[in-house]
Write a structure and sequence with these properties.
By secondary structure, the protein is an all-alpha fold. It is built from 4 helices and no strands. The protein has one domain.
Length: about 60
């Protein structure tokens, strides 16, 4: 998560998500975020947009749990 989606402000959020959520569910969120980035043709360098996509998906995980 940190390598591909960190925008410089999301590290703590991603670390806490890794501690609190099921690894399989997180892997699914990362996979879904990666697909969304490709589908929306977001540049690899646009870390802010990528972080927003993943944090939204992780927030949805928290809402379900």
């Amino acid at each position: 998560m940190i390598h591909e989606f960190d925008d410089g402000r999301s590290r703590t959020f991603f670390c806490r998500a890794a501690l609190l959520h099921d690894p399989t569910a997180l892997a699914g969120s990362i996979k879904k975020a990666t697909k969304t980035v490709r589908k929306e043709k977001i540049r690899r360098t646009d870390r802010k947009a990528k972080a927003k996509i993943l944090t939204t998906l992780i927030d949805e995980l928290a809402a379900i749990a």
